[in-house]
Design goal:
The chain is α+β, with helices and mostly antiparallel strands. The protein is 30% helix and 19% strand. The protein is globular, with a radius of gyration of 15 Å.
């Protein structure tokens, strides 16, 4: 399969040290199988960084590695309470990081207002089912791939 990483620069070799902490699935390298979604991320990153240009970097990945037992993999097929709690754990600055030991995680992208909604849930303003509803991406369900270990990153082949 082909996976895309959108940024304001081309990525020759993913570097976990440059990855930001407290993202949906933790500190790691994120990709999408949806080229348009990755390009949107690249455009957003370019605006945020105020430098570079929206850039897609393509990688080949053998998706059988998600199921053959070689890696510790977590798959969320849809928005769910379990997914929302996983996102909350990874985005919680008070939770020890890394918050999990998965090499690869696949699951939905949280809506852009994730931080606000997680605060509302943590404060008891909304319930867990309401949190799941609020975190649904407004443009329809889109998925992301997280690579969180050097071992997993080694399976990505830059195209």
């Amino acid at each position: 399969m082909i996976l895309y990483h959108g940024s304001n620069v081309s990525i020759d070799k993913p570097d976990l040290e440059r990855s930001k902490p407290y993202k949906d699935f933790g500190r790691g390298f994120y990709l999408s199988s949806d080229e348009e979604q990755a390009l949107r991320i690249g455009k957003l990153r370019t605006v945020m960084m105020r430098t570079g240009a929206p850039t897609l970097t393509r990688f080949s990945f053998d998706e059988t590695l998600l199921e053959n037992g070689e890696f510790n993999v977590r798959i969320f097929d849809d928005y769910s309470e379990e997914w929302a709690q996983f996102v909350l754990m990874n985005r919680d600055i008070y939770h020890p990081q890394p918050a999990h030991s998965f090499d690869i995680v696949y699951g939905p992208v949280a809506d852009d207002g994730v931080t606000f909604q997680l605060r509302r849930y943590s404060a008891g303003v909304i319930s867990l089912p309401e949190l799941v509803k609020e975190l649904r991406y407004s443009k329809g369900i889109t998925f992301q791939y997280y690579f969180g270990t050097e071992r997993a990153l080694a399976k990505l082949i830059r195209l």
